[in-house]
Design a protein that fits this description.
This protein has 181 residues and is mainly β. The chain has one domain. Helix content is 0%, strand content 32%. It is built from no helices and 11 strands. A 6-stranded antiparallel beta sheet has the order 1-7-11-10-8-9, with no helix packed on it. A 5-stranded antiparallel beta sheet has the order 2-6-5-3-4, with no helix packed on it. It is globular, with a radius of gyration of 15 Å.
């Protein structure tokens, strides 16, 4: 059965040590930020504030755990644990041979767009970017194909488990706190 084309950003699936507990911390978004931050949006910090990742980043904070309307500002919760795994959809890609290899690297598709009905991010992986580790692609690492019921790895829009590469995660070598802002 074909997978549905339903990009909804990054969903936490595995916490520290494989647990089902997902840690978040609160971070501030400037009211001058004019984009929507949807649930499941990959975010980074810039100029002291949180914003959605829209290109290949050099630094990642984590994934938004809540929705924030544009130009409102305020605090949002972010899944910011460096070892957190996320489930995410791969775009329409017919080359499934590279998808499930643990450690393969991916780039992200989708900008800061969010679904106005579900309030979720539309971010997804670029399946054609799947490659073994390379210095030019160090953003997201595959941890394997999702075992979610109905997820068919042989068809388009497969769901993978990924984690942010430690070399770009802002907290890979420290413990985040609100006081660090």
């Amino acid at each position: 059965m074909a997978n549905p084309n339903d990009p909804n950003g990054f969903k936490p699936v595995r916490g520290v040590g494989g647990s089902a507990c997902f840690r978040t911390n609160r971070y501030f978004v400037s009211s001058a930020y004019t984009a929507i931050i949807g649930v499941g949006a990959m975010v980074q910090r810039a100029d002291g504030y949180v914003k959605v990742v829209v290109a290949e980043p050099t630094e990642v904070l984590g994934v938004s755990a809540e929705y924030l309307a544009s130009s409102t500002g305020g605090w949002i919760s972010v899944y910011d644990e460096p070892t957190q795994w996320f489930e995410v959809q791969v775009d329409d890609n017919t080359d499934t041979t590279e998808l499930g290899y643990v450690g393969n690297c991916f780039k992200m598709l989708g900008t800061n767009a969010s679904n106005s009905t579900t309030l979720h991010s539309k971010q997804q992986l670029d399946g054609s970017s799947a490659a073994a580790y390379a210095a030019s692609i160090t953003f997201l690492h595959s941890m394997g194909i999702s075992k979610k019921i109905g997820n068919d790895a042989a068809t388009s829009w497969t769901r993978l488990h990924v984690m942010v590469a430690p070399v770009v995660h802002i907290h890979a070598n420290q413990t985040p706190t609100e006081s660090a802002l």
